[in-house]
Amino acid sequence: MNNFIYQNPVKIVFGKDQINSLGSLLPKNGKIMVTYGGGSIKQNGIYDSIVKALDGFSYIEFGGIEPNPKYETLMKAVQIGKQENVDFLLAIGGGSVLDGTKFIAAALPIDNDPWDILLGKTTVNTAIPIGTVLTLPATGSEMNGGAVISRISTKEKYAFISPLVMPQFSILDPQVCSSLPHKQIANGIVDTYVHVVEQYITYPVNAMVQDYFAESILKTLIEVAPKVLSENPAYDDFANFMWSATIALNGIIGSGVPQDWATHDIGHELTALHGIDHARTLAIVLPGLLSVMRSTKREKLEQYAYRIWGISAGTSDERIDEAIAKTIAFFESTGIKTRLNDYGVNGTTISVIASRFKSRGTILGENQDINYETVEKILNIRL
Asked: What is the pTM assigned to this prediction?
């Protein structure tokens, strides 16, 4: 196991009707900006609960944060936040709203171009404090310091990470999942699954706790997926799904182990260029990456094949191929297509993505051995 430091300050308030505790978690003085997405919270009753909890607090609202939050939209919130002297942010939504709110939190205190945060040219030295009410399990953003932001004008999508934008608290009520569309639940399942794989299928460092913990999340997702996508999901199934999404990316299973994230980096380009849902880009890219990079991931791929899918017969490559096939079948079982041509994407886009990585000099993967040519190969086998 590699050396590591783990610290997570986020207070999780989990369970039925925990939104009712919001008032006790918010700062009593100051100005709050409530951020949310397209307005679904006004249809499912969450907004009314939030407004009730905010009685007596000074706050303003900023809605309209998109899936794959846009820099241009978020900068409007930053401008309003500065004008109104906002000193606390309350994000109501899924990963996109939470990610966007983290960017707002980091951008509010600075005077230079906040896009430099995404480019790594500006360090986050201070940030406005955040609280969240999670409405869509998927990204784990409710318990980490990461965010991914897109820019319309340049068709780019970048991430930044800072402990200063970790929420002070996050309220997780599994009951909110019951109003989610099938598509969003499926996206959340696949997104969570790939988060785990990015930290698990690398190379072994004898981190038994992290491996078994990761495997337990993958098995949980495989078991609960058909249940939460059924017509009458149970509360406990949603609870296990929601908690899996949080644990998958709160730093626990990634501590002391090598991490990949190439699938995400490649997938971001597909979203930036074609607007494909983030989770669906992961479902496209991951099978290709596991196949192409099997030589360096062989030991963990064999472990994955046996412990997750019970595959023990055949040669190493046969077992790996079967495990990848079962992974694809699992993604497809949620209703998510896994090939580029399912989304109208062809070889032209592959060339554009490879060219972008080449021009940036970007090298990906846990071993820093995935260059633009490898990216091109990974995508070509997913046409």
From this structure: 0.94
